[in-house]
């Protein structure tokens, strides 16, 4: 029996977003506020604060996201969707530049991911769809860089994402230090 492939993260995000303009505006504001507060305070940030920062009432938040988990999943999916779209936006750059730009964006995504990862079930359909979409977006950038000879041939995407995610798991004095450490790590994926 054939299984149906999971939807892309873009399809998932589009299906969740309301169609009416005013409702879509509120939804987007809630996603943005939640992204910022979860990255800053962790997954336990009060939902009342999310609604307040978004400029909407708590009832609007619960109409869009009946549970905290649904909000987590929607923010996570929106982050992964942006990361996947970014892969397409940088794909025409030189191979190293394209991969490096995508990985720098991945670092920004990882800050929100860290807060949400603890609160989400890694076996949920949303999480799995996001993982598949992220790999489908990043793999062509890595393979193109490998074919161009600017990245080690023995590197797999899972290795690379774990390397970069490991960097984001620590605290830095500022963004400049984090970017410097990322550049040092990226030097390590170049061929010898």
Written account of the structure:
By secondary structure, the protein is an all-alpha fold. It has a single domain (12-187), classed as Tetracycline Repressor, domain 2. The chain is built from 9 helices and no strands. The chain is globular, with a radius of gyration of 18 Å. It starts with 8 loop residues before the first helix and ends in a 5-residue tail after the last helix.
Mean pLDDT: 86
Oligomer: single chain
CATH topology: Tetracycline Repressor, domain 2
Biggest β-sheet, characterized?
none
Overall geometric form: globular
Low-pLDDT residue spans: 1-5
CATH superfamily: Tetracycline Repressor, domain 2
Number of strands: 0
Could you state the order of secondary-structure elements as H and E? Answer: HHHHHHHHH
Summarize the structure in short:
The protein has 192 residues and is mainly α. The chain has helices spanning 9-16, 21-41, 47-54, 58-64, 68-90, 95-117, 125-147, 157-168, 175-187. α5 packs parallel to α7.
List keywords for this structure.
9 helices, mainly alpha, disordered N terminus, 192 residues, Tetracycline Repressor, domain 2
Give a topology summary:
Layout: H1 9-16, H2 21-41, H3 47-54, H4 58-64, H5 68-90, H6 95-117, H7 125-147, H8 157-168, H9 175-187
Helix pairs in contact: 1-5, 2-3, 2-5, 2-6, 5-6, 5-7, 6-7, 6-8, 8-9
């Amino acid at each position: 029996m054939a299984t149906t492939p999971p939807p892309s993260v873009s399809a998932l995000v589009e299906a969740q977003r309301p169609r009416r303009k005013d409702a879509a505006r509120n939804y987007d504001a809630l996603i943005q506020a939640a992204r910022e507060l979860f990255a800053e305070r962790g997954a336990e940030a009060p939902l009342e604060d999310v609604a307040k920062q978004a400029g909407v009432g708590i009832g609007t938040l619960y109409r869009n996201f009946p549970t905290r988990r649904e909000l987590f999943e929607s923010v996570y999916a929106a982050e992964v969707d942006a990361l996947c779209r970014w892969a397409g936006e940088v794909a025409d750059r030189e191979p190293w530049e394209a991969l490096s730009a995508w990985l720098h964006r991945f670092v920004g995504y990882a800050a929100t991911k860290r807060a949400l990862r603890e609160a989400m079930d890694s076996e949920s359909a949303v999480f799995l769809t996001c993982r598949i979409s992220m790999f489908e977006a990043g793999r062509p950038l890595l393979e193109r860089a490998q074919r161009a000879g600017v990245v080690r041939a023995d590197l797999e995407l899972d290795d690379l994402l774990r390397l970069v995610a490991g960097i984001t798991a620590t605290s830095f004095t500022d963004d400049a230090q984090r970017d410097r450490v990322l550049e040092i790590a990226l030097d390590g994926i170049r061929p010898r």
